[in-house]
Specification:
Elements lengths: L1 H7 L4 H4 L4 H16 L4 H19 L2
């Protein structure tokens, strides 16, 4: 499923390129869900990146 997400969001690679690999993966997973819920890919990805970054900071303790 992640491969499908990457293809769907490849146009937004500039938003993903500087993320840590685990944050990028989490963001793509979240964005896929948001997109399936009806958000446009760009909006879904922006929201997902913000949440993935918070997730990463929380997981670091």
């Amino acid at each position: 499923m992640l491969i499908m997400s990457e293809e769907k969001f490849v146009a937004f690679d500039d938003q993903l390129k500087d993320l840590r690999p685990e944050v990028k993966q989490k963001a793509l997973e979240l964005a896929e869900g948001y997109h399936q819920d009806g958000l446009e890919p760009g909006i879904a990805l922006k929201k997902a990146i913000a949440e993935a970054e918070l997730w990463f900071l929380d997981s670091e303790g």
